[in-house]
Amino acid sequence: MILVEVPVTSLEKTKGCERAPYEITKKLDEIWSNEEGKQLSYKIERIAEKNIFEKSIDILKAAKGNEKVIFIGGDHSITFHTFKAFNACFEDSAIVVFDAHADCMKPKKIEKPNHEEWLRTLAEKFVDPKRIFLVGARNNDIEEIDFLKKSKINLFFVNEFAENLNNVKELMESVRSFKNLYVSIDIDVVDPAFAPGTTYLEPAGFSAREIVYIIQHLKLLKNLKALDIVEVNPEKDINGLTVKLAAKLIAEMK
Length: 254
Hints:
Blueprint lengths: L1 E5 L13 H9 L14 E4 L5 H12 L5 E5 L4 H12 L3 E6 L19 H9 L5 E4 L6 H10 L2 E3 L1 H6 L3 H9 L4 E7 L21 H11 L5 E7 L10 H12 L2
Parallel strand pairs: 1-2, 1-3, 3-8, 4-5, 4-7, 5-6, 7-8
Helix pairs in contact: 1-9, 2-3, 8-9
């Protein structure tokens, strides 16, 4: 695995998230093996704010799809740049986004949307919405709801998985046909009881066990080439729970 630290935040609200990459990679030292008994091996890269897109392309091209690349944010604005880079490197690509929010507010700056606007900017300007799969959104602005209806972004609701985790198979079948897949995990898709260290706490999310189960299944997809984990805020965390969960999700991708 190639871990890429992207310590970037886009708004004052997400201040503190820039510490997450360092804290998460440090916590990985305490995970001796994942649940399959595999020991972890990885190398770490780091990207500065001014060249996220360009540097991501370099890293993805070097990996050549043979190693999973995992970007560690920072807030969710990084995914606008990292997935654009992924889309530029790999043909027939799609993205699965796990998030409590749609992140589809109308952007103020097309070239640099913040963490509340990035997905709408992608869908309007850069990626066919049919290639976007949003999982777990449960508190959206009316403006975002209208956009989601018009754009035809693929939606999977958190209650569908809570009622039957076998629905992860439906998600897998929906994305299996694309040649290249990117997964983005905003940690607030998880219930704050399990992940309190984030900016916007939304109750009734996935449990830690559920998100691990989902990731363990998604990693079986041969087209999964890159991921990111974002919106972990160590300054808001309690007993390191959120940082440790993010590290565990990375470990389960081995």
